[in-house]
Specification:
- The protein is built from five helices and seven strands, in the order H-E-E-E-H-E-H-E-H-E-E-H.
- Helix 3 links the parallel strand 4 and strand 5.
- By secondary structure, the chain is of the alpha/beta class.
- 41% of the residues lie in helices and 19% in strands.
- The termini are far apart.
Length: 178
Protein backbone atom coordinates (compact mmCIF):
# COMPACT_ATOMS: atom_id res chain seq x y z
CA UNK A 1 0.00 0.00 0.00
CA UNK A 2 2.86 2.36 0.86
CA UNK A 3 4.47 1.77 -2.56
CA UNK A 4 1.21 2.56 -4.29
CA UNK A 5 1.04 5.91 -2.50
CA UNK A 6 4.58 6.69 -3.65
CA UNK A 7 3.58 6.29 -7.31
CA UNK A 8 0.29 8.23 -7.03
CA UNK A 9 1.90 11.70 -7.52
CA UNK A 10 3.79 10.37 -10.54
CA UNK A 11 0.61 8.96 -12.10
CA UNK A 12 -1.26 12.23 -11.48
CA UNK A 13 1.62 14.29 -12.95
CA UNK A 14 1.78 12.12 -16.06
CA UNK A 15 -2.00 12.44 -16.50
CA UNK A 16 -1.88 16.22 -16.25
CA UNK A 17 1.09 16.31 -18.65
CA UNK A 18 -0.78 14.26 -21.26
CA UNK A 19 -3.82 16.52 -20.93
CA UNK A 20 -1.76 19.71 -21.37
CA UNK A 21 0.30 18.26 -24.20
CA UNK A 22 -2.86 17.37 -26.12
CA UNK A 23 -3.71 21.10 -26.34
CA UNK A 24 -0.38 22.16 -27.83
CA UNK A 25 -0.54 23.34 -31.42
CA UNK A 26 -4.31 23.80 -31.43
CA UNK A 27 -5.69 27.13 -32.60
CA UNK A 28 -7.75 28.55 -29.72
CA UNK A 29 -9.75 30.70 -32.17
CA UNK A 30 -10.94 27.59 -34.02
CA UNK A 31 -13.65 26.26 -31.76
CA UNK A 32 -15.54 23.43 -33.39
CA UNK A 33 -19.28 23.78 -33.63
CA UNK A 34 -21.74 20.93 -33.34
CA UNK A 35 -23.97 22.90 -35.74
CA UNK A 36 -21.77 22.60 -38.83
CA UNK A 37 -23.96 21.03 -41.50
CA UNK A 38 -27.12 21.63 -39.48
CA UNK A 39 -29.74 24.38 -39.68
CA UNK A 40 -29.52 27.52 -37.57
CA UNK A 41 -31.48 26.68 -34.39
CA UNK A 42 -35.14 27.68 -34.41
CA UNK A 43 -35.76 31.13 -32.92
CA UNK A 44 -38.29 33.95 -32.80
CA UNK A 45 -36.71 37.18 -31.56
CA UNK A 46 -37.33 40.89 -32.02
CA UNK A 47 -35.71 42.92 -34.76
CA UNK A 48 -33.36 45.40 -33.07
CA UNK A 49 -34.77 48.33 -35.06
CA UNK A 50 -38.45 47.32 -34.87
CA UNK A 51 -39.49 45.45 -31.70
CA UNK A 52 -42.90 44.73 -33.26
CA UNK A 53 -41.20 42.74 -36.04
CA UNK A 54 -40.23 39.20 -35.03
CA UNK A 55 -37.34 37.60 -36.89
CA UNK A 56 -37.00 33.84 -37.31
CA UNK A 57 -35.01 31.34 -39.38
CA UNK A 58 -36.55 32.66 -42.60
CA UNK A 59 -34.11 35.61 -42.39
CA UNK A 60 -31.43 33.21 -43.68
CA UNK A 61 -33.42 31.68 -46.55
CA UNK A 62 -32.68 32.45 -50.17
CA UNK A 63 -29.14 33.82 -49.94
CA UNK A 64 -25.75 32.84 -48.61
CA UNK A 65 -24.98 35.19 -45.73
CA UNK A 66 -22.82 35.85 -42.72
CA UNK A 67 -24.30 35.76 -39.24
CA UNK A 68 -22.23 38.13 -37.09
CA UNK A 69 -22.57 37.97 -33.29
CA UNK A 70 -21.76 41.39 -31.82
CA UNK A 71 -22.38 43.69 -28.87
CA UNK A 72 -21.57 47.27 -27.93
CA UNK A 73 -19.71 46.07 -24.81
CA UNK A 74 -17.33 43.93 -26.92
CA UNK A 75 -14.01 45.70 -27.70
CA UNK A 76 -13.18 43.26 -30.52
CA UNK A 77 -16.55 44.04 -32.13
CA UNK A 78 -15.48 47.68 -32.37
CA UNK A 79 -12.26 46.51 -34.02
CA UNK A 80 -13.95 44.41 -36.71
CA UNK A 81 -16.88 46.70 -37.47
CA UNK A 82 -15.11 48.81 -40.09
CA UNK A 83 -14.27 45.69 -42.06
CA UNK A 84 -17.86 44.45 -41.84
CA UNK A 85 -18.95 47.82 -43.24
CA UNK A 86 -16.50 47.29 -46.13
CA UNK A 87 -17.83 43.77 -46.81
CA UNK A 88 -21.44 44.95 -46.86
CA UNK A 89 -20.97 48.25 -48.69
CA UNK A 90 -18.14 47.50 -51.13
CA UNK A 91 -18.47 43.76 -51.72
CA UNK A 92 -22.25 43.35 -51.31
CA UNK A 93 -21.91 40.58 -48.72
CA UNK A 94 -25.23 40.00 -46.92
CA UNK A 95 -24.66 40.16 -43.16
CA UNK A 96 -27.27 39.37 -40.53
CA UNK A 97 -26.41 40.71 -37.08
CA UNK A 98 -27.07 38.99 -33.78
CA UNK A 99 -26.94 41.65 -31.07
CA UNK A 100 -25.88 39.47 -28.14
CA UNK A 101 -26.61 40.20 -24.46
CA UNK A 102 -26.76 43.92 -25.14
CA UNK A 103 -29.13 46.78 -24.44
CA UNK A 104 -31.10 48.23 -27.30
CA UNK A 105 -30.03 51.82 -26.54
CA UNK A 106 -26.31 51.05 -26.38
CA UNK A 107 -26.57 48.99 -29.58
CA UNK A 108 -28.13 52.00 -31.33
CA UNK A 109 -25.28 54.18 -30.06
CA UNK A 110 -22.73 51.72 -31.45
CA UNK A 111 -24.41 51.62 -34.87
CA UNK A 112 -24.90 55.40 -34.86
CA UNK A 113 -21.17 55.96 -34.40
CA UNK A 114 -19.83 53.20 -36.67
CA UNK A 115 -22.56 52.54 -39.24
CA UNK A 116 -24.89 49.62 -39.86
CA UNK A 117 -23.65 46.85 -42.17
CA UNK A 118 -26.52 44.49 -41.34
CA UNK A 119 -29.49 43.55 -43.52
CA UNK A 120 -31.34 42.65 -40.32
CA UNK A 121 -30.38 42.55 -36.66
CA UNK A 122 -31.70 39.87 -34.34
CA UNK A 123 -32.00 41.31 -30.82
CA UNK A 124 -30.92 38.64 -28.30
CA UNK A 125 -30.68 40.43 -24.91
CA UNK A 126 -30.83 37.22 -22.88
CA UNK A 127 -28.49 35.28 -25.15
CA UNK A 128 -31.00 32.52 -25.93
CA UNK A 129 -30.10 32.16 -29.62
CA UNK A 130 -26.46 32.69 -28.73
CA UNK A 131 -26.71 29.79 -26.28
CA UNK A 132 -28.34 27.56 -28.90
CA UNK A 133 -25.55 28.46 -31.37
CA UNK A 134 -22.90 27.64 -28.76
CA UNK A 135 -21.56 31.20 -28.69
CA UNK A 136 -18.57 31.58 -26.37
CA UNK A 137 -18.54 35.35 -26.70
CA UNK A 138 -18.56 38.10 -29.24
CA UNK A 139 -17.51 38.44 -31.94
CA UNK A 140 -18.29 35.22 -33.73
CA UNK A 141 -19.20 34.93 -37.39
CA UNK A 142 -20.96 32.06 -39.13
CA UNK A 143 -21.32 31.35 -42.84
CA UNK A 144 -24.93 30.35 -43.49
CA UNK A 145 -26.06 28.84 -46.80
CA UNK A 146 -29.22 29.78 -48.71
CA UNK A 147 -31.15 26.99 -46.97
CA UNK A 148 -30.22 28.27 -43.50
CA UNK A 149 -27.53 25.64 -42.83
CA UNK A 150 -24.44 26.49 -40.77
CA UNK A 151 -21.36 25.92 -42.93
CA UNK A 152 -18.60 27.46 -40.84
CA UNK A 153 -17.96 29.22 -37.54
CA UNK A 154 -15.19 31.75 -36.92
CA UNK A 155 -14.43 32.92 -33.39
CA UNK A 156 -12.80 36.33 -33.20
CA UNK A 157 -12.40 39.42 -35.34
CA UNK A 158 -13.15 39.34 -39.06
CA UNK A 159 -10.49 41.27 -40.94
CA UNK A 160 -8.99 41.21 -44.45
CA UNK A 161 -6.88 38.10 -43.78
CA UNK A 162 -9.69 36.14 -42.10
CA UNK A 163 -12.10 37.06 -44.90
CA UNK A 164 -9.74 36.16 -47.76
CA UNK A 165 -8.17 33.03 -46.28
CA UNK A 166 -11.04 31.50 -44.31
CA UNK A 167 -14.54 32.91 -44.78
CA UNK A 168 -14.55 33.95 -48.45
CA UNK A 169 -13.66 30.45 -49.77
CA UNK A 170 -16.51 28.90 -47.75
CA UNK A 171 -18.87 31.73 -48.76
CA UNK A 172 -17.99 31.43 -52.46
CA UNK A 173 -18.32 27.65 -52.45
CA UNK A 174 -21.76 27.98 -50.88
CA UNK A 175 -22.76 30.57 -53.51
CA UNK A 176 -21.61 28.16 -56.23
CA UNK A 177 -23.79 25.43 -54.76
CA UNK A 178 -26.92 27.56 -54.43
Amino acid sequence: MKRLLLFLPLVISVGIGVFLFSGLGKDPSKLESALIGKPVPEFALQDLHDPEHILDNSVFKGQVSLLNVWAEWCPACWDEHGYLMHLARDKGIPIIGLNYKDQRETAFGFLGRLGDPYQAIIFDPRGSLGFDLGVYGAPETYVIDAEGMVLYRHVGVVNERVWQEILQPVFNQAKGNS
